[in-house]
What does this fold into?
Amino acid sequence: MTAPRSNRCSRTGHALRRAGVDVDSADAQGVLWAAGGVAGGHALYVKDNKLRYTFNWIGSHYQDVIAAADIAAGHHVYVAEFTATGRSTDPELAGTAGTLTLYIDEDKVGEGQIVTQPGYFCITGDGTSVGRDSASAVSPEYDAPFPFTGGTIEKVVLDVSGEHYVDHEAQVIGWFMKD
It folds into this structure.
C-alpha cells in the first residue's frame, strides 16, 4: 500500500507509529512502515530479529533506535513514539529534538535521542508505504523494497494527535483481572 506523496507530520511534537503484526517466525524481517527515501524520511522495520526505527535527516545524517529485545512469534503491536523535548541546539540539525521510544506490546524495548522536522508537512519525496519501502530506501541498513516477510501486517496507524501510547487491550485485560 502506498499513500500520496504529500505527508502530514505532527505539529504537536508528539507522534506515534503503531503496527499490529502477526509474526509467524522470529526470522520475520522487513519494512513495516516507511515515509520518504534516500533524501530523507522515517522507517519502522525489523532486521536481525530487532525492531528498528530510522530517521533520515535529508540524506546526510541517519538516526537509528534499535530495540534491545528480539522479536518473537505471535500477535504483537510494534510502536515508535516520538516526544519532543525542544528545539535542537545543533546548528547542523535545526529541527526539534526529542526522544524516540520503541515498544513491543506494552514493553519499552528501546529509546534514543533524535532530531526531527515536525511541521505542517515534511518533504519526504518517496511517499508513505506499508509492508515495504516503495522507492529508495530510507536507511542504508536495508535495500528497498525490503518487503515484510515472516508474518502479516494487520494494520498500521499513524497518530499525530499528541496523545501518548496506551496499550488499550492491556488496560481492558487489567480491568477484568481486578474483578
Summary: The longest strand covers residues 74-87. Confidence is low (pLDDT under 50) at residues 1-12. Residues 2-178 form a domain with the Jelly Rolls fold (CATH 2.60.120.200).
